[in-house]
Amino acid sequence: MKPDGVLFDAAGTLFDLVPPIHDVIASTAARHGHPCAPARVERALDHVGGTLGWPDDESDSAGRTRAWTVFVRRIIDEVDLPAPDAALGEISEEAAATILEPANYQVFPDVAPLVQRLRAADIRMGIVSNFDDLLFDILDHTRLGTSFATILTSYRTGFSKPDPRIFHLAARAIGTDPAATHYVGDSVYSDMGGAHAAGLHGILIDRDDKHSTYSGERIVSLMDLRLDLDR
Prior knowledge:
Layout: E1 5-8, E2 15-17, H1 21-31, H2 38-51, H3 61-79, H4 85-99, E3 105-107, H5 111-120, E4 124-129, H6 134-142, E5 150-153, H7 154-157, H8 164-174, E6 181-185, H9 188-197, E7 201-205, E8 218-219
Parallel strand pairs: 1-4, 1-6, 4-5, 6-7, 7-8
Antiparallel strand pairs: 2-3
Helix pairs in contact: 1-2, 1-4, 2-3, 3-4
């Protein structure tokens, strides 16, 4: 069925940090003379993010830098990098600064063609993201912001995915009924869990094929999105 609107997650769905966070941390450590396998950092990132949580939304760049520096340091501690405390602090600060630089984010190549298809079919579009105002800097840099009528963040709404309220706010903002709205995101928990709880049609984008056993609708590229736009 052709949807009235399509909402998207942001990071991991429309754009991503290049290189990814675990590579940023590993390469930063190596530049400081403390090499570490990116795969070890990736495992530590998944564990820290999954157990202690990702950095909270912050109201300004200084707070954001502090939060991400602490987060990176937790990852480094998980890796148990053998380096002096001062060096670990420098690595954490430098890696956090790289992660928070909007110029280091790139749009996935399948985004522009899909946006053009949706525009041509007169489908309303929006973004729903667990992000603070850094998102708007990234959208400005990547020139994605003008493609979406609505951009809702956890920081500005006070609701974080998978809370269904942020999805309902987004559907209302683009003027669609949740049942006639698709949501595309890369997280089974926050994106698919929240979209389904809110009554939207959730579509998991699994670019790295990490969720092959997911039972719902799953795609590996936005070009695989089946929207029946010609009906």
